[in-house]
């Protein structure tokens, strides 16, 4: 059982790395198995197709990312500080990826959405669910900020959260294109404007 589980984990690890660096369409089962160091037959023991593998990678990546988001966004810090913690952690993920692989890989979900949204309906639906979950997590914090007077009363919490997720994805795309994690540094400043944060609250945050 241990060896079986180890082979599956090797395939998932190799697929996650290759999907981030190369995308889905150009990736073959043989390359995944070669990178994982397992026989090709092992692949079909665990996964019925490349798409099934990609969905598993997506789910595992989201499970880990969601744990981090929930931890950061549910802390006892002020709502706006929690958002800043999330943005800083997002930037750090890209910096760590650049140090490890020599390049910024961007967001796995955003990369696959751009590549596959018109080709693989099951993957598109799963990515949509994940983005909606991200929006929901941020929306709760925006509502808290509004209740405390840290965000403008006219701010639509859901649309603000949607814009922040879109901004994260757009900035991650620029960071990948330019191989520059610093492209994510503007997330915090832009969100202060988006949330119509009063001047006195901004001053207290610096």
Overall description:
This protein has 206 residues and is an all-alpha fold. 76% of the residues lie in helices and 0% in strands. The protein contains ten helices and no strands. It has helices spanning 2-22, 29-36, 40-46, 50-73, 79-101, 108-116, 121-147, 157-178, 186-194, 199-205. The chain is elongated. It starts with a helix and ends with a helix. The relative contact order is 0.12. The mean pLDDT is 92.
The helix content, as a percent range, equals over 70%
* Average pLDDT for all residues: 92
Please report the total strand number as a whole number: 0
Q: CA-to-CA gap between the ends? A: 53 Å
What is the molecular shape?
elongated
H/I helix tally: 10
Q: Strand count, sense and closure of the main sheet?
A: none
The topology string of helices and strands comes to HHHHHHHHHH
Structural class: mainly alpha
Q: What is Rg?
A: 19 Å
Low-confidence stretches: none
How large is the share of residues in beta strands? under 5%
Give a nutshell description of this structure.
With 206 residues, the chain is mostly helical. The protein has helices at residues 2-22, 29-36, 40-46, 50-73, 79-101, 108-116, 121-147, 157-178, 186-194, 199-205.
